[in-house]
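[Automated response] Your request has been received and processed.

Submitted sequence:
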Amino acid sequence: MQSFRTRQNRKLELTTPPHTYQMPGRYKVAVKLIDIFGNHTMTLVPVSVG
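Generated structure:
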């Protein structure tokens, strides 16, 4: 999901639609952020399902 902030619309959507996994287990979720200057960072977050 992507969320952008502009001069006219200062809000950012901070919730994402739900996602269901087919099987229980351990997964990694990637979170990527790009700021207005083009700098970007990404982190992997471990998630346990079930």
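Summary generated for your ticket: The two ends are 24 Å apart (CA to CA). The CA atoms of residues 4 and 27 lie 27 Å apart.
If you did not submit this request, please reply to this message.
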